[in-house]
Amino acid sequence: MDFALDDKAEDLRSRLRAFLEENNPGRPPKDQEERRQWQKAWARLLADKGFAGPSWPKAWGGMELCLTEQVAYHEEMTKARVPRQPGGLGIVGPTILRFGNAEQRDRYLPPIVRGDEDWCLGYSEPEAGSDLPSLRTKAVRDGDEYMVNGQKVWTSHSMTSDFMAALVRTGSDESRANGITYLIIDMRTDGITIRPLKDMTGDTRFSEVFFEDVRVPVTQVVGAENNGWKVARTALGFERSTANTARDMGYRRILDDLEKLAGELGRLSDPIIRQELAKMETSVRLLHLNNLRILSAVLKGEDPGAESSVTRLMHSLFEKRLHELAIEIIGPNGLIGGSDRLAVQRGRWAWGFLRTRGSTIGAGTAEVQRNLIAERVLGLPYDPGMPAPVI
Predict the structure, then answer these.
(1) CATH code for residues 240-377
(2) Are strands 192-197 and 206-217 parallel, antiparallel or unpaired?
(3) Which of 198, 223, 265, 309 could form a disulfide with 99 if both were Cys (CB 3.0 to 4.6 A apart)?
């Protein structure tokens, strides 16, 4: 596919630049709740002005941009350093568009595109992280409702989410992927307990979520009962393609910042530092090209498949090494937190270093991604020491 930016893309770029120059929301507030409302206000403004949902159909408030226009869109948004659009736009929304029924689309898509309602993903569990098909949270049918019991963990932003897109077991304990259902759960339902988890940075982005006799209407199933694994794989495909297109452009900006900082600190005279920066430069360009390949498949209506694991693995290794290199460039002061007067650039690199310690664990560990690539991309023999593969 030809990814050269055509006249349509350049016209969009010009219009978007003019909009961003006039409406850029500036730096985010420090208070967590104020920042959340600031992000919501930005999402509503984008929707009102016709700049929300670059890949979404126009019928649902999106821009329905072609691939080259989407590239231009993400480039300009990244350069302007404006808030990212609501997570539901890139993951839950496309899943409901593809697998949801008419009532679900009417109910959930308009608030998603405007950022009026927040979503989280209830996938990982204490005994089902890398081996997700072994999840144990059960949903037992009781008339027109399911009774949900179990636990999710490492759930991002569940404390402020209105809904959870959850994977629950509706089949037998031995059914693995064949007994999983994709269920929308209202986070205000009785029986839900949320316990925040503090990470190394001091943030509480993650949490444990407990379900005790939580009643969920059967109408909240997306797709069909026991077909949730297919729905979830599609959702993860969207997460690792369209969302990552914007993410790798963000990496481009962060690497530029690091290269500039290295120059200011006089570290570019070090041949080892120059060589490591050259490796990062090569990697960020490969990330961009690989994400365009995956995005192209998604836009054609194809399942990104195991190739999306290549993107996930590359991203996790890149951002982890990028922040390690930042600390090497800065030296001892690179580990000083943002509140200290000696902190470099308000401690952004120290925070990034701590946050990316878990990059090769979240959303499928690096080891799992390597197995998927080996077996489904390279065609190598299945590892008998791993859980049975799920297609």
Answers:
(1) 1.20.140.10
(2) antiparallel
(3) 223
